Structures
1.
Amino acid sequence: MNINKKLSIVLSIAALLFVTQLHAQLYVGVEGGANNNHIITNTSDKPFFTYESSYGYSFGLPIRYEFRGLPWFGGIQAIPGFVQKNYRMQRTGFYSPMYQDYQNNYLELPIMAQFRFGGHFNKQQRLYGILNLGGFGGYWMNGHVKGRALSPMDLTNYQEFDEAYTFSTERDNRFELGALAGLGIQYMPNKKYVFSIEARYTPTLTDQQNAYSENQTARYNDTYGVFVGMQYHLPSLKHNKSKASK
Amino acid sequence: MSGIKIYFKKVSQRLSIYIVAGVLAAGFFSCRKNIEKRELLSNYEENNFSELFQSFWQGMNTNYLYWDQETVDWDNMYRTYKPKFDSLDLRRYSDTTMNMCFQYMADMTRDLKDGQYALQLWNGGDFRFEDSLYKGYISFIPKLLRTQRIHTALPDTLFDYIVQYNYLKDFDYGVYRNWNTNSIFQIITGRLKKGQKNILYTSLNLFAIKEAYNATNASRPPRPVIKNFFDNIHKSNCDGVIIDLRNNRGGNLEDVDFLVGQFTSKPMLFGYARYKSGVGRLDYTPPLPLNITQQAGATDFKKPIVILADIYSAALSEVVMQAFKALPGAKVMVVGEHTYGTSGLFTGNDISTNGGTFALGTFGGVRISNTALQDKNHNFNFSGISPDFEVKYNASSIDQMLHTGVDIQLEKAIQVINL
């Protein structure tokens, strides 16, 4: 990514933050969900070979800063958490008994701006549609590979394996960056609690591999998830309360 | 401020936020590299030297099994040799340009570790390798060329004659021809006349033991010879056994179980194998355990086993030796020279193993292992299995053998097993 793009991203995020007043409300919570991860790469140069998506789960601890006086802006939200990005390498046709299931575990920090639509439900309750836009950084902690290959000692049979994934410092890029877009519904029964359900798309923008070879084919994760979450409005700090009372 | 102005201010505020967010989102996706759609290797056209280079470099890049072990910088080869191949297209096509092409490919791959590597040029060509000029060659096999520089292979008939008449009693043999491959399997068995102990001896010129055992049509049926040998092993009806694998270039994978499985009553791990698992240069399967399966009637053989090997003992011979060395409770020793150092096999077909041999259109082909082999400690054997007792043949000892009938390697094996 060139310097101009980086600069525009930083300035845009800063602009978002400075648009409003600085009185904020803090929400913390928990969310969890399931996802379906796809590997985006090319396999047309391998016969009877494809990658298939796989399901995983994730959970996180959302922290959201909501700015007063901007009901359409849910605030800036960070959700440090854990996410699985799984996929399968599947041989096809005559070779379909052979496959490899990859289970990859990441620590992830998505940061997003939340936009809200709708609002008043009745005097106390609020019901919003939400749009989350942002990005994330992640670290590939560990993995597991399980599968079936041709048995070396019996070519009419297959051999199964199931073991921890061995990282290669040359091949594997353990840090990833990506974008985030989510659509959902946010329900507030009162001023203290927020419940949400959201569909979220998190494509990586960095290759899963280091650039170690000429003519290398890139490999990206595209993850689609559904999350349910609950947040709690933390009471304001004492010095803010006394400021407000003045 | 009037209501309309306030309204427009709020809308424009929101709109500006949405526009910024949308631009950011669109901008992010341009960070992704373009994913090029590539052809199958078998669909590559080699209409000129540039295309031939792409086919050759890409085929090796995706199908070769040892890049994580290599010192050859394959990316540097791309950068160095692509311009050279491109410049061949600027010349008029002739034997000279074909020879130069062959030379470039030989230079790129001469230091590769895979003992099975062979570059084949259907029309033949000339190339220089080390300090020699090879004229009109169809194959470039660096491992074999280096091995031949140590010494040429001794003819099997020489050993057969000397061993039969000078060393064995209860001599027996079997011969079987595979009419599809035209390969001839021969087994010799007997007991040694020399030494104090009752030593079984067998010589195998290649590995097709099970195939020969099951053959219904053979000039000299090997089945009773093989059965007699295995029965003696099951009963441990000897003080030791010498297995002669000199000049045995390999053969059928099933023979690892069929031979070594006669010496153990339970399964045992003797190494690991791996295949390619994806399109990337470093995509490999996890190491798959290689286990010996005990054969019907087998018992645990605990007598000394001496294996005779030389620099032409290759491929499956080395796998068999590795398997014998893993036998629990058995004392296995190798006498002779270090083996060829194949480190890989051809098993199944290359599609099922995701790598291995590939064609270069009508130009030729590249032969490489599709199964990489590791020992029990996950080490690759590129230098060959070293003997426990080294006895090398040279011109003088060969001459002595021809005149006196003394096989110095077999003499050492007898000495070792009689200790």
2.
Amino acid sequence: MATVKLFGAFQDMAGWAEREIDVTTLGAIKAAVAESDPRLPKRLDHPSTLVILNAAVIPHSLRRDDAPVSMSDEIAFGPPVSGG
Amino acid sequence: MIHITRDAIDPAALLAEFSAGRTETGAIASFTGLTRGAGDGGPVALLTLDAYPGFTETVMAEIEAEAEARFEVQDILAIHRWGPISVGEPIIFVAVAATHRRAAFEAVDYLMDQFKTRAPFWKKEEGPDGVRWIEPRAQDHQDLARWAPETPDR
């Protein structure tokens, strides 16, 4: 089970912040998350969305749907950030 | 040093501690960001920042390292608050120590422009009109572009 975390507006859209999801690819994780709200599929695929695997950002060019995700991985999705 | 905290920030105490005992420093510049009562979308009663502990500090430390490489500075301190923050309270404190003032001013300016668009915090404003999530403004991206490397003429 990979740990999936959502941040910012994605959390409100989905109605949850953290879940264990039993899949093995990035595409399957996105599909599972997207089931929570019809606005999510487009947002999860957007270049400005942060996709963070084990505390490191996956660049947009490397976010292939067949990218493997293992059971011990933690993967997070968040909208563009705004500190300060 | 980079630090994120859910506790209140005391800029005066942080600046005093940061400044103490420096005999080789000629300049300290600091910045304190406060929570405003009026956001771009209307009045704000409460600001809540979500962070991703572990990842948020990692990205902020990368920005700190960039500033150290780019400017002649001796020391950097950046404390960012997260969680619920009332209007008028400090949200961020940044201080830079350097031999001369220009590097200190520029490093603080650089750090803030980078934090505004890159530090992983998700901001939610609550006011009489409801709840709004805040994303970087066009102005924030223009501020960031000030630091882009110049391309030489060919």
3.
Amino acid sequence: MAPSSGIELRDLEKTFGSPAGPVRAVRGIDVDVSEGETVALLGPNGAGKSTTVDMLLGLQRPDAGTVSVFGGPPERAVSGGRVGAMLQEGGVLRDLTVRELVAMMAALFPRPLDVEEALHLAQLSEIVDRRTERLSGGERQRLRFAVALVSNPDLLVLDEPTVGMDVESRRAFWSTVHELSARGKTFLFATHYLEEADAYADRVVLMAHGRVVADGPPTAIKAIVGSRTVRATLPGVGLEELERLPGVTHAERRGEGVALGCSDSDAALRELIARYPAARDIEVRGAGLEEAFVQLTADDEVPA
Amino acid sequence: MSNPLAYARFELLRTFRNRRLYIFSLGFPLVLYYAIAGPNRNEHDLGGTGISAPLYFMVGLAAFGAMNAVLGSGARIAAERSVGWNRQLRLTPLSTRTYFRVKVATAYVMGILTIALLYLAGATLGVHLQAGDWLAMTGLVLIGLAPFAALGILFGHLLTSDSVGPAIGGATAVFALLGGTWFPITSGVMQKIAEALPSYWLVQAAHVGLGQKGWGTTGWLVVVAWTVGAAVLARRAYARDTRRV
């Protein structure tokens, strides 16, 4: 069998110690990315996206499982200069201009892009001579992108790449990604914006609580997370009781309030009002990612 | 091919743009030199050392400034860590060895700058040595800086960007005081303590200017032991640091 040419994550697990006890950030992840594919890791904060990205890049060692990048360990792909990454806390050094920082990074790679081209691709041409400590959040983010690009990698890993960018920068950013993807680069980006995953990925890997809960084309994922939540103030009613309401898949209590994840919010709402006239402050809304994930993973905590 | 020299050039560029360097590593020792050695410029045997005041303090303050300049790499490393630069570097083909080499080389460039400045100042106060003595003395000073280069990297990977400044300032002050930068230490318990410190041997390099041997066996042992010890600890701090982040 030919060695895999893309990315293979197998049974990845990672647990961190914390004062409140161990936190299982990643608990068994399997993901494959083929060369040339653009894949989104979608999930709410705390889903384990950044930890997964760190293990994929070799920045953290998994407690269990294996990572293969271009048929070898991530360190080999990194030392061969085949991986570019835009990290959330990615380093932007001070006391250098934008161009100098990009050139400094270029000097570390075996076959870098032309510095001016990387600056241009990241829409930094206007501010090449500005000191990095005087950049806005969005400009800083574009500089991180340039730093990732200038190494001319085969795989680009982007962790929440558009945080802090304005609408215009976002659009330009994704158009550059698209252009590079057409040149055959592989992209893996982590995001908590459903719209970005939907619009720019070939495939979406949905993560929650350290697991992959769905993996498929954006349209399929959108259907899954497009459900609704009904919230109401309703003290003194048991969750089991609420979960038996028609159209309700999952109920949660937050103080006096309850949140009902619904597959059919209309039916749930009618029955809720009929059965519990005391319910007030009722609110129905399209589930944010967080709520959608709560539903998707509701069965997780049942002991096997 | 990747180009570590180009990379090092940007490291230097960044360092030269940092004002701290000019104040603490260059300006401060220079001003102190004229303040201390100037009034004593005709003192030819300082505190029984047999060394003239301008020469003694030239080496003393070159040692002080260079120690500070070399330890300054710690401040840069801590600041770089705080913005996640080391994580970014780990995603490049830059090897750990090259990373350390560039750090040490940059630190030395700063140290050498301080030394050169103090030599010039020394010359204006009448310090006069044979070319060979200048070279031998400089060689010893550069070797004597090695423990501080390692300590700088250790501090940088051990401390936060908030605490590293005071730590470097404090370490320089203590090393300088106990090592005899401000006044010669020639006897007693102070002497015993001083002999165990690498800063003492930096200052002792001035003896070369008298045609004497700079360091005996003790000197070499102390400098080598501190260098190896600090380098091992620095390596460990680096490993721990990169494992955690």
